[in-house]
Specification:
The complex is a heterodimer of chains A (about 425) and B (about 300). Chain A has about 425 residues and is of the alpha/beta class. Chain A contains 15 helices and ten strands. Among the domains of chain A are: about 210 residues, Alpha/Beta hydrolase fold, catalytic domain (Rossmann fold), CATH 3.40.50; about 40 residues, no CATH class. In chain A, about 50% of the residues lie in helices and about 15% in strands. The longest helix of chain A is centred in the C-terminal third of the chain and has 31 residues. The radius of gyration of chain A is 28 Å and the shape is elongated. The N terminus of chain B is likely disordered. In chain B, strands 6-5-4-3-2-1-13-12-11-10-9-8-7 form a 13-stranded antiparallel β-sheet. Classes of the chains: A alpha/beta (about 425), B alpha+beta (about 300).
Chain lengths: ~425, ~300
Amino acid sequence: MKKTIQKIALSITFTFSLLNVIAQDRNVAWIHGLDGNANSWKHYNQIFDKERNLNSLRTTYNTDNGITYSTNKVIGSMNTRYKDNAKGANNPRNLGIGHSMGGLMLRDADRITANGTKKFGGYITVASPNYGAPIANSLLNGSVQNAAENACNKLTDGPLSQLIPVPFNFLSDLSTDVLCNIFIDNDLIQSFQGSPVTNKDLRVGSPTIDAINDYDTNLPRISIWAEENSPVHWRMLSSQMFGNDTDLVKIAKSVRAVYDGFYIYNKSKAVVSGVLGFFNPYIWGFTALYGYRATQWKKGRNWIDDSENIWSSLIKTTRREKQTYWALTSVFGGVWTGDNTIGSLGLSWKQHTRFISVNYPSDGLLPQYTQELQDIPIGNRYKVQGANHTEVRNMTTDGNGVDETKDVFDDIFDREDWFGTN
Amino acid sequence: MKKTRVQKFIIFFISTIFLVNCNEDYINRPQVSNDENSTKALLEISYKMTTTRDYETAGTSVPDSDLAILNPSSEKQEIKMDLFENGQLDITIEEVDFSNKIRNPHKILPDDSPKIVKTVISGNTIKMYDANGNLLNSENIPIPNHSDLVKTIKDIGKEFSPEDINEVITTMQGHHLVENLEEFIKNLDEEYNDLLKPPGSPITIIQQGENFVTLRMPLNNVEPEMSQESVLLIDKTLNKVVGTRIYDNNQLLQTTFYGYNEGEVQSLNAIKTVQKIQLSSGNKIDMVSCSKIDDMEFNLNL
């Protein structure tokens, strides 16, 4: 009997000590961004609830009415879920993890709550526009719309000159106007455009962004930034459209090959008619026509080549830098330019130096400089390599067998400071 | 004698224009793939083309939003084109690396996905391959059948001797066929325009000094749906086309210059195109594309 009581006592002691080891003393809120919902963080929430025994909150917030409106929704959901007291919603061990605008909501919650009522003792921003989202500025000043219209013109010039009906469909029913329109029709841009209040809030230099950055906080913070591989724009849009970052890249490359094919087709026919013109000079009329068509197709092909630069300029992740390069240069001016020395074009390689547009790292939507918090130690800044703005929430979708975001979270949770979560 | 030759040209020209006009129907006629087309091509062209694209930015203040589309670029392609007796036109394009290639120093992670380095158009199918020869994609595209172009070329074979044809092809010069280009054009001016009225549009011939002549012709002569006009610049001494221009409502759209090798075989070796492009800021700027052509081979198997 005594042994039985001892066994029960030992068992109870062991169970409670085990519970002390397993249960975390913190609640973790996974906050989605502008284009997200409660499912946005589902992948990592489920993994770490299991591996790290987190007590997680994941819900959908209305993000259409500006940053602070959404922030108050987060505060409200914390109070509802954990109770508005020191052991619940106001527990200084509570951790917030926010993707994109969700990171700003965490910082805003820090700003607008007083000590003792703060919902988070620390937070992690993931691919967040900490200093504003330049794409919001480009949307507001019409640059995105202009770029999309310019793109559509360039992509339709070739088919129009060839007298092929526009839009013409091939490549998985992806027509010419789709490729250019997704510049403004993708979910993220639509989210920006669909919520003008939030769009204005998220722009670089907005009063809300400035207020968040003017606030001095003592909370432990980490920022994770995502860096995508080239072509960053097609990869980010591909993750949105197809759930992986490769399908749209393949399509864009195939569309380029088709435009290149028609360009070469017409250029070669210009050469053929140039030769046949010696049998009949009037055939030279075709030389001009085919040469013109070749150029029209090439405009579309060039746009596809330049589209990453164009997108990068819209999200403001380019810099103007001097570049020295070799280019074919002609000394020939021709009678049309006032030079009467007709003959060989005299093409030769010459070095040129001028300013060009150089692309810098981004997640396809936000530049590195706005994703990384600048006033935190270097050791608190992490990078998810090969991730775009959408897929950083689930890096198993890129199919390389590595979950890069999980690896970064593991590094953070293994820390021996406030973020340690074992 | 010359008059007779000119008359032959007129008749041949009218039939050529008619035939070439008719050849580009975009009805997808079933065409066999290149692999199945084992017959020797009627027309074979191959060349290497190195092209650089740059912009005339000197002296202009370019905002960042515009600069993004003004980066210079270059490429080298090996091109092979075969026209078969059944009207099928096959094209193979291979991307080639070269020492002077422009590599803009972007600071982003490289593209790690397969690159298309070879494109094959055969019949109505386009296929794309990577560097290891793996097929990356295949699509149907509306490439027209060129059976009427085949007929045109065969008519040339009937009209002219093989020696004349070979001479024209190897030198890309018309001396053997057109002994006096100026007189030839003058005769065409008189007779062709009479023949074409109505419904065709006239050709305007303007002498440009002693050495050059321009032929301005509406493109609806060769493509009824086209509203633009083309102008050919012909060097009378060289007997060659040295430039073309395209106008739309008298507004210049594009200028192309052609350069030729000097010496015995004066084949085409350079193409320069100047085109005004509209920037997102509303500014206009000249895009200059220069193509250097090497190892051009042009064979007619009549």
